[in-house]
Design brief:
Radius of gyration: 36 Å
Largest sheet: 9 strands, antiparallel
Structural class: alpha+beta
Number of helices: 26
Distance between the termini: 75 Å
Strand content: 15-25%
CATH topology of one domain: Multidrug efflux transporter AcrB transmembrane fold
CATH superfamily of one domain: Multidrug efflux transporter AcrB transmembrane domain
Number of strands: 28
Length: 850
């Protein structure tokens, strides 16, 4: 007699009946499990999802131009061209002093290479938009793969920052050889440089100026292959070799001839083969939990440091790459890395990705065992075994589907998989529960066990299919969420839909096969019993709901009342409403903005003061201070362009915490506690601080952003000030700031053309003298073959000769007649204010309040 006798012989029933005794089912189970194991091993693990959002930074220079001129001559024409490119979503521009920067952001999912080609083609096909005196645009594409997955700090109490930089450069070279590494960066430390400090008095006495020195060095630091010289059938290479390789070579450079005697550089300048002037500082200090990371430094003591960062190529497993990178670093200890230099891991996204992956597996095992225990309690141990096989099979194929679709194991897909666990167990449970019920129905013992199983599965097939597609219909709209949130949400509906379909398939094919072999068929009629308390309570409730109208309406009214009370929790502010819950990370950072014009030393002192407040927190392992340079950026920092924070008035404090499994307080609560401590201190110094946590979802410019548009900058600033005041007065709004430049003093030099020409001095000569005297000029490289990094040759005045505006008036400038005049004789110096930055968004001027 066929297994499905007595039931409608539709295709699904026939499929179920055919697989009850099919030898293919155990093979399918084994294949599914192996496929899932293969997917787990092959799917790359990483911290952030692979969100494709092409972003291109475009930098254009126009030296000397004011922001208003940059806005009209550079930003405006460039924005119009960029806005014409298909796929562009936003165009952000900043017009600054002598420079413009535009950020082109394409729609999510646009191809990175094609976007770069379109942008490059559009700009360079219309080079006529570039005004005279303006550089050609420099394009720098950015993507999530630029985010470092590993950051390692080198620090020591016995070595200075120059030595740390040299050691770090050697380590970086070893890391670059690793397969899968896309970029290795070295942050901090003092770079080696050959500095030439001019003596203005000696230059004046010899009728020379800084431009003469610069030209002499540039013309004499030469090397070239001149070609081949052939004679008697042999070819000889001819090479000009005048390259400067040592400090003595530079000292002996002839800058002029006076009275028939050569004047060498050491007669008019002091030459040092040492450091470049400090442009930034990087410091590290251990916290109360430093011993958990093996840091052997005094708590709270700041030491110089450098940080090595490693970014990976697309599709590379972050966990494996970080392990290999740390193996390389460990192998260099005692050789390239001296014993008294400590190696401290300050970021390891490979480790966090592995932790999340392991956590997922633990959740999967725990969920399966929990479901099995519940089923065993109500339906018996044999029924639970069916579920404990069916659920892992479904999860295994779901993992394989993620791998085939190109997803990686990251915090988003792991959350989606955990979400899937709660819904994919329904179908097998419904099947098994109904099979157990049919086993005890009257007459079940007279049928074959296979027929009982097919009848039980067929009975619940329609509601099972309906429930499956209802769940899919309910969650599938999440797959169409736009913007950066789309890639974050998409793994959930896709994974859950696949899991539900697989769960339904398992319920029709694998569950019946397992039930026949694991469940014990009934051999006699066992009447249904209502003696257990759960069944009696359910029967009592359903009888009253069906038969008693008053009870029914009372029940529905109670449900409606509870629903209303739950909704009232939101307007009564008794619960916090947000799109995603706060994450519990092992890091956060503090972003410090001093007033524009603040010096590097002042910023460093403020950052150190704030850091000491943070180091008092018991959960802190260590902090790093990045002053005048950018800290290793996260995905959040990539979108906010934190890697551009390289001004003397800017600093970042990277705070690392002990693992969340070792502390009771969440990182969000710690960050809030730190904010309360440092904000009053920062305000005393005139600093603006922001405590930046790693967002649980896609990064944004800020949680709350107001964009102020208007006809004039004065109008925009006035409205922005009002909005800023509202933000500051609103409870719960913190870290209020706006993108408005602070007034900064400026010494403006105007050359009098008549006086300059009378002395044979051109304004361009004055420009060159000012540039090399104040800001310094690199006039080439010291060709030292043993140096790992470039060693620039820098010319400038000593710090004592360029610290006051009056110092500029005595700068010597040689005219075409060979005579030297002072800058003050041909130019007027006035004290003014540096013009502020001008911001645009999508071709419109804007002021941001955050």
């Amino acid at each position: 007699m066929p297994e499905s006798q007595g039931h409608k012989h539709d295709i699904l029933t026939r499929i179920t009946a055919s697989f009850v005794n099919s030898p293919l089912v155990p093979l399918a189970i084994i294949f599914s499990v192996l496929l899932g194991v293969f997917a787990v091993l092959r799917t790359p693990s990483e911290e952030e999802p692979q969100i494709i959002v092409p972003m291109i930074d475009i930098v254009v220079s126009m030296p000397g131009a004011m922001p208003e001129e940059i806005e009209k001559r550079v930003v405006g024409p460039m924005e119009k061209l960029l806005w014409e490119i298909p796929g562009v979503e936003y165009v952000y521009s900043t017009a600054g002093d002598g420079q413009a920067m535009t950020i082109v952001r394409f729609f999510v999912g646009e191809d990175v290479e094609k976007s770069l080609i379109k942008t490059y083609g559009k700009l360079y096909q219309h080079l006529d938009w570039i005004p005279p005196g303006c550089s050609q645009p420099i394009l720098m594409p950015r993507s999530i793969d630029d985010v470092p997955v590993l950051a390692v700090a080198l620090t020591s109490e016995h070595h200075d920052s120059r030595t740390l930089r040299q050691v770090g450069a050697e380590v970086a070279e070893s890391l670059r050889a690793l397969n899968g590494v896309s970029e290795v960066s070295l942050i901090g430390g003092r770079k080696r440089a050959l500095t030439i400090e001019l003596n203005p008095e000696r230059l004046r006495a010899l009728n020379l100026d800084g431009v003469d020195v610069m030209q002499a060095l540039a013309s004499q630091n030469q090397a070239d292959q001149s070609g081949l010289m052939t004679a008697t059938g042999a070819a000889t290479q001819v090479r000009l070799d005048n390259a400067l390789r040592t400090a003595d070579d530079v000292r002996g450079t002839v800058v002029a001839v006076r009275g028939g005697q050569p004047i060498t550089l050491d007669h008019v300048a002091t030459i040092r083969d040492a450091y470049s002037e400090p442009q930034d500082y990087l410091l590290l200090a251990p916290g109360p939990q430093s011993q958990t990371k093996g840091i052997e430094l005094d708590q709270g003591h700041f030491t110089p440091a450098v940080t090595l960062t490693v970014a990976k190529r697309p599709g590379i497993n972050a966990t494996q790459l970080c392990l290999k990178a740390m193996e390389v670093v460990d192998s260099l200890k005692g050789t390239i890395i001296p014993h008294d230099i400590q190696v401290i891991v300050v970021r390891d996204y490979g480790e966090t990705a592995k932790h999340k992956s392991d956590e997922l597996l633990i959740h999967l095992i725990f969920a399966t065992l929990s479901v099995g225990a519940v089923i065993a309690w109500f339906l018996g141990g044999r029924a639970s075994l069916v579920i404990m096989v069916a659920v892992p099979v479904t999860l295994a194929v779901t993992l394989a589907t993620y791998w085939l679709m190109g997803y990686t194991l990251n915090r988003v897909t792991l959350f989606a998989l955990i979400f899937c666990i709660g819904i994919l167990v329904d179908d097998p449970i419904v099947d098994v529960e109904n099979i157990v019920r049919h086993m005890h129905l009257p007459g079940a013992h007279k049928k074959s066990f296979g027929q009982v199983i097919v009848e039980a599965v067929s009975e619940v097939r329609a509601p099972l299919v309906l429930a499956t597609f209802t769940v899919i219909a309910a969650i599938m709209p999440m797959a169409f969420v736009g913007g950066l949130m789309g890639p974050y949400m998409r793994p959930m509906p896709i994974g859950a839909s696949v899991a539900m379909l697989l769960s339904m398939t398992v319920a029709f094919i694998i569950t019946p096969w397992l039930s026949k072999r694991l469940l014990k068929p009934s051999t006699k009629h066992e009447p249904e019993s209502y003696d257990d308390p759960f069944t009696r309570a359910y029967v009592w409730l359903m009888r009253h709901l069906v038969n008693d109208p008053k009870f029914r309406w009372l029940f529905l009214g109670g449900v409606a009342t509870l629903l209303g009370l739950a909704i009232l929790l939101i307007p009564l502010k008794m619960v916090m409403v947000k799109m995603l819950p706060f994450d519990n990370k092992n890091e956060f950072e503090v972003v410090i903005d001093m007033p524009d014009g603040t010096g590097l030393e002042t910023t460093a002192a403020v950052a150190e003061t704030l850091s000491r407040q943070i180091l008092d927190q018991p959960e802190v392992t260590d902090v790093q201070l990045y002053i005048g340079t950018a800290a290793p950026f996260s995905f959040n920092g990539l979108v906010r362009h934190y890697y551009l924070r390289q001004s003397p008035n800017e600093a970042q404090i990277q705070v690392n915490l002990i693992g969340r499994d070792k502390r009771k307080t969440s990182s969000h609560e710690i960050a809030g506690r730190v904010r309360e401590l440092i904000v009053p201190v920062a305000q005393d110094f005139g600093a603006r601080v922001k405590v930046v946590e790693v967002p649980p979802g896609p990064p944004v410019i800020q949680t709350l952003v107001a964009e102020i548009y208007g006809p004039t900058q004065e109008t925009r600033l006035a409205v922005a000030q009002q909005v800023k005041d509202i933000f500051e007065a609103t409870p719960g709004v913190v870290d209020v700031d706006w993108e408005v430049s602070d007034p900064r003093p400026e010494t403006r030099v105007r050359v009098n053309a008549d006086k300059a020409l009378q002395n044979g001095v051109s304004p361009d000569r004055a420009r060159q003298v000012l540039a090399l005297s104040v800001g310094g000029v690199q006039v080439g490289l010291l060709h030292d073959p043993t140096a790992r990094e470039n060693v620039p040759i820098e010319i400038r005045l000593p710090q004592t000769e360029r610290s006051r505006p009056t110092d500029l008036e005595t700068l010597p400038i040689r005219g075409e007649n060979g005579q030297v005049v002072s800058l003050g004789q041909i130019a007027t110096l006035t004290q003014e204010v540096t013009p502020g930055l001008i911001y645009h968004k999508n071709m419109l001027p804007v002021v941001y309040v955050t």
